Amino acid sequence: MGWWHPERTRGAQRRFRRATPLAGFVVLALALSGCSTDTQWERFGMPEITSKQGEHILHLWQGAWIAALVTGVVTWALIIGVPLWFRRRSDDEVPVQTRYNLPIEIFYTIFPVIMVIAFFSQTVRVQNLALEHDDNPDVVVTVVGQKWQWTFNQPYEGEYVFVSGTGEDIPDLVIPVDKTIEFQLRSPDVIHNFGIPAFAMRMDVVPGNENSYQVTPTEIGKYAGKCYELCGAYHSRMLFNVKVVSEADYEAYLADLAKNPDNVAEQPVEGGKYAKQPINDEGEHE
């Protein structure tokens, strides 16, 4: 018996065409159902976000994952499904031979370009929202990253109160809830990076470059902060805590800090005790 070439039946084609978009919609619906922020699975690994700026970044992150998952499912469905659907069903059968499919080839060429444009435009939009500056922030904190800790300066009654950490003492950055906080970033030595995961924001602290960004905390609580730049031998010590408190507690904190002369200065302390210490040939403070 000779080999025979089966013909595609219209019924099979119609069922296949109907099943493909249906499967895509099912996958998309399942993915979109995870857009809440209750768990890390629903946030796709992101920590719980407690700032207005961070919410925009979280939504971009979720959207990117959803798009990637849908694209992956469709791609794998085509890779695995086509050989199974058009497989040889008997020894004397030759499956339908298709040398090319122009619509699919056009789709595979155009769709990635559309995705890149969409990702780029959304990233720029979210970046502009996250880095938008209010001309009159409620609180301005001068943040100084130095080897190997942080100094936080805040204005109070015409002067500045500050806390500075050490390798053994992790400092607390206290800020009020629901207020616009501007972090002005300074460094007297090397590049550091000031980041707070719960706010989904971080930025390089570059010597000679006055970087800054603003956040609006939305929940009272205690959060971790760290340096995200490998800045040297004791980079791992550059940790700090962020305490978001009520406005009344914040004012009480500043008043209590101002009672200690060691925590008061006429100008922001830019570098703590390291600012006045020269750096030797090995890049270390003397």
From TrEMBL:
Topology of the protein relative to the lipid bilayer: Multi-pass membrane protein
First-listed, main subcellular location of the protein, grouped into a coarse class: membrane
Superkingdom: Bacteria
Function, in words: Subunits I and II form the functional core of the enzyme complex. Electrons originating in cytochrome c are transferred via heme a and Cu(A) to the binuclear center formed by heme a3 and Cu(B).
Catalytic activity: 4 Fe(II)-[cytochrome c] + O2 + 8 H(+)(in) = 4 Fe(III)-[cytochrome c] + 2 H2O + 4 H(+)(out)
The protein's name: Cytochrome c oxidase subunit 2
Cell compartment(s), UniProt: Cell membrane; Membrane
Necessary cofactors: Cu cation
Homology family: Belongs to the cytochrome c oxidase subunit 2 family.
Annotated spans, Disordered: 263-286
UniProt-listed NCBIfam families: CoxB
Transmembrane segments: 61-86, 106-124
Matches recorded under SUPFAM superfamilies: Cupredoxins, Cytochrome c oxidase subunit II-like, transmembrane region
Enzyme Commission identifier(s): 7.1.1.9
Residue ranges constituting the Cytochrome oxidase subunit II copper A binding domain according to the UniProt record: 136-256
Keywords on record: Copper, Electron transport, Membrane, Metal-binding, Respiratory chain, Translocase, Transmembrane, Transmembrane helix, Transport
InterPro entries: CcO_II (IPR045187), CcO_II-like_C (IPR002429), Copper_CuA (IPR001505), Cupredoxin (IPR008972), Cyt_c_oxidase_su2 (IPR014222), Cyt_c_oxidase_su2_TM_dom (IPR011759), Cyt_c_oxidase_su2_TM_sf (IPR036257)
Binding note for cofactor: Binds a copper A center.
